[in-house]
């Protein structure tokens, strides 16, 4: 029997609040005791990744209580309910099945008369077969020439996740002989976005992937028209240059406007769709279906780890609970995500959507206002770049911002250079290690402007190399972290009603059906 | 006589604190009174840009008091002291002269025996002449072929600002016949960053701009070696493919390793260097010196507006004071920057550095801890993309995040499409207008999950088009805003001691001179 209770009604949460400021991080991380923490506070995720939380302001007693809270909040049971097909997205009355796009986690889930795991696997297979035909030159442009570029048209979850995943694997694919097509992305309704992409690609050899679950996303349909105009202006037939990724019930599903259509369904939220054919078509075209399959395997492996009932062996749950401690006990409103990997340059932007759209809510799953803070603001840039930018505030600002680092022992591209006795990769890794310690322990100086208080908590996910499997595991880790936090806060993490009002008002502006300040702004903007 | 006092010692600040939660934003912005606010609460910046703060939670009484506070904090006098050459960066004992890279604002500033405005102008001229020779084919590769790509090697201020400015004008330049060379950027010490750029450019026709003020930035020197190796491996002479941007006293200044050297000095902080030759060389090469000159003119025009003593006629000061009210009276720790312009996709990343590195500090300019919050966390992505991502939290999250929108009436690329009766540009503008009102006024609904409380404050900078002049004015607006806020908080906004400790520890890691937890992390990362 699952109980959906607010966080502040849970007994263990009251106990947890008494443990505020219990850990003195500079002391805890000093000397050999600090080294012992690094060894002890580490847990494998999957595919060679591990989550290390030594530099978080926790100790065994807090961890015990976080475990108690996780149990009281029934996180494992709720996760099982989700992957076994209960209606977790109550607001929209939908199942939540993105984990099933990469594997079966529990009982078969039958919905709309089909086995959902089989459905997602079949769509992945369709995408794979299509990609292989494109690569083999069996599907070509009208002149019989191979496609060289794939352009995804989509916004939000149809853009941020797939784009971040593409960038994450591009160097790896080039180095490992599986770089097939260059991918580009059009998302913004700003016409300059599409104009730029269209001006800088080889249009006759471009294949477009139109992604909209509903088939009604205004930005995406507008950009589709934009692209079709450009194709026609070059004497090209749009129907020979475009596929659709949509739901079976959408107007795009059976249109002869597309070379092919690939399906997801209402049980895959946009921000959780990178492992569905929303990511699958573009990534299979770019890197081959085998790479995409390896990516899914990594995600599935992390989903399995997330089933662990022992908090200390479940990195996604642990990450969630430590984040909750930081948000609801220590009171920190922001979390920085800092990957020491240029390939993950857009991963923070994806996490922004994943986390802030899922848990940036102030009513619980029953529509009742909650009286505690929920999802934090998420931001980040890759290191070492960020060190030369906003780290000043992270080190010496008046507010504490918890951090999540990501680092890999090996680079992707296999090129490096030795300067001053070390490789670039070693410098990169030395910097992330150094930052963790500088943030945790600080350093006193006679000049207060050069003093660092420390006590700024961070975790790090460490892997050998950012491979397709590791990327899949990394993605699923954060998805599951966000899911567990949503359960704790008693939110529906799978709807996004907060985006509706703006859409509605924009329509009124375009219909010139406005007055007051909205009319005044519209005039200023010459609409 | 200038007094450098902490914010909380100012009489008008005490009065201001009494005006917390005075404005009910949903009410203030409703009906025709809201329209009147939109008309009234607007001030020109320069070059057709205006700053509209109608949807900020201020009224005339608060504005009067903010004006009083600005006067008591002597913002105008401090700005004048800065551009007249007083030693404002006291920690590093340096003048602060970035405004002089674009024009003279006060008396001639003589330092190191030269007139500084003349020095910056001469360097700009040198860069212009060099760029023209490259464009004319007078400076070529060893084979006598024209360069087609310029690659900036730099990090932090040598990367974020110039990169953001390049992206901001690329479409505009293509449309207006002044796109000369494609620009690329290498910044991260992650070897995959340089590897990717080198794999995807036409190396024999690439010209590299090495940017390091000190000539000792580890990331940049490492990437220089990386690039030189790649050039030599192709049988190319690095000295024929590289220029340096540095200070006259740096080891790079007189090296025969470079085709030419261009100079800034210690009075230009990295994050303020886009209008020096740090931005000037790459932008003049990419778009021609005339475009760069127009960009400088826009920045200078905004610098002039920032001299206004009447707060209501000084948009940078007004933006600063409203931000201060939000940070120190209303208690908001984060600000979102949301440009409705794909060309400004990396502008928020530049502002992150500009703002967070300048004012993310907890000791005042005398090294004494301050007891009030200083610089906020800054993040943002272009709209409408963000609407499909993190806006959920901005609309319905438990915390209020003040916002700064930017919008333009016209696009840059001159391509558009009419769908459902409106152009993409109109849709873009309709969305930003709609968002401002949705955030300000919200909307009640019988379903609490579909209710919006409103009361989420925002401003918008509106322009006709993102031209070089408008971009310059936009950049200078934010630089001056950050400067004024730093004055109010009594900070030295022009040093960055917070980045030093991490560098120091990273060196120790690379020298294997570590123990305890730092050693343990180093081992995990296989350094």
What key attributes describe this structure?
homodimer, 527 residues, alpha/beta, Rossmann fold, 6-stranded mixed β-sheet, 5-stranded parallel β-sheet, 18 helices, 43% helix
How far apart the termini of chain A lie comes to 54 Å
Question: What is the residue-mean pLDDT of chain A, rounded to a whole number?
Answer: 97
CATH fold-level topology of the domain at 98-295 in chain A: Rossmann fold
Main sheet: strands, sense, barrel of chain A: 6 strands, mixed
Structure classification of chain A: alpha/beta
Highest CATH level, the class of the domain at 98-295 in chain A = Alpha Beta
Please give the radius of gyration of chain A in angstroms. 24 Å
For this structure, the quaternary state is homodimer
Which of globular, elongated, flat, extended, rod-shaped describes the shape of chain A?
globular
Q: Could you say what the CATH architecture of the domain at 98-295 in chain A is?
A: 3-Layer(aba) Sandwich
Report the CATH superfamily of the domain at 98-295 in chain A: Glucose-6-phosphate isomerase like protein, domain 1
Total strands of chain A: the figure is 15
* Largest interface chains and counts: A-B, 159 and 159 residues
Strand content of chain A: 5-15%
Low-confidence stretches of chain A: none
**Residues in helix, % of chain A:** 40-55%
Count the helices of chain A. How many?
18
Q: Write out the strand line-up for the largest beta sheet of chain A, numbering strands in chain order.
A: 1-2-15-12-10-11
């Amino acid at each position: 029997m699952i109980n959906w209770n607010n966080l502040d009604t849970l007994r263990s949460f009251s106990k947890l609040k008494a443990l505020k400021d219990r850990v003195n991080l500079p002391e805890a991380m000093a000397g050999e005791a600090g080294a012992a923490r690094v060894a002890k506070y580490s847990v494998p995720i999957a595919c060679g990744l591990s989550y290390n939380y030594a530099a978080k302001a926790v100790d065994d007693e807090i961890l015990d209580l976080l475990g108690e809270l996780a149990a009281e909040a029934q996180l494992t049971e709720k996760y099982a309910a989700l992957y076994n097909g209960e209606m977790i997205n109550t607001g929209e009355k939908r199942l939540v099945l993105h984990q099933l796009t990469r594997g079966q986690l529990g009982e078969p889930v039958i919905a709309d008369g089909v086995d959902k795991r089989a459905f997602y696997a079949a769509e992945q297979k369709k995408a794979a077969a299509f990609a292989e035909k494109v690569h083999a030159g069996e599907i070509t442009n009208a002149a019989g020439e191979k496609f060289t570029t794939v352009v995804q048209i989509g916004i939000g979850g149809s853009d941020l996740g797939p784009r971040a995943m593409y960038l994450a694997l591009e160097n790896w694919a080039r180095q490992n002989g599986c770089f097939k097509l260059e991918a580009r992305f059009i998302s913004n309704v700003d016409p300059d976005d599409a104009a730029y992409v269209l001006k800088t690609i080889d249009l006759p050899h471009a294949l477009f992937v139109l992604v909209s679950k509903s088939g009604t996303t205004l930005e995406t349909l507008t950009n589709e028209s934009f692209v079709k105009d450009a194709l026609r202006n070059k004497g090209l037939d749009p129907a020979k240059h475009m596929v659709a990724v949509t739901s079976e019930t959408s107007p795009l599903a059976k249109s002869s406007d597309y070379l092919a259509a690939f399906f997801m369904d209402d049980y895959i939220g946009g921000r959780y769709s990178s492992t569905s054919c929303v990511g699958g078509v573009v990534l299979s075209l770019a890197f081959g279906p085998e790479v995409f399959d390896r990516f899914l395997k990594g995600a599935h492996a992390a989903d399995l780890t997330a089933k662990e009932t022992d908090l200390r062996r479940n990195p996604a749950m642990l990450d969630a609970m430590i984040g909750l401690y930081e948000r609801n006990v220590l009171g920190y409103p922001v979390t920085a995500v800092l990957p020491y990997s240029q390939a993950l340059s857009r991963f923070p932007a994806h996490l922004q959507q994943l986390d802030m759209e899922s848990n940036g809510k102030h009513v619980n799953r029953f529509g009742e206002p909650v009286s505690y803070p929920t999802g934090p603001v998420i931001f980040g840039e890759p290191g070492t770049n960020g060190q030369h930018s906003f780290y000043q505030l992270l080190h010496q600002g008046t507010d504490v911002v918890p951090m999540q680092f990501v680092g890999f022992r090996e680079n992707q591209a296999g090129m490096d250079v030795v300067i001053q006795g070390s490789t670039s990769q070693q410098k990169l890794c030395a910097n992330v290690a150094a930052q963790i310690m500088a943030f945790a322990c600080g350093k006193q100086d006679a000049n207060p402007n050069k003093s660092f208080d420390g006590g700024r908590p961070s975790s790090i996910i460490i892997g050998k190399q950012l491979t397709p499997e590791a990327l899949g595991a990394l993605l699923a880790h954060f998805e599951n972290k966000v899911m567990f936090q949503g359960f704790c806060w008693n939110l529906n993490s799978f709807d996004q009603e907060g985006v509706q009002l703006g859409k509605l008002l924009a329509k009124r502006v375009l219909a010139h059906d406005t007055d007051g300040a909205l009319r005044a702004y519209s005039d200023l903007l010459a609409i």
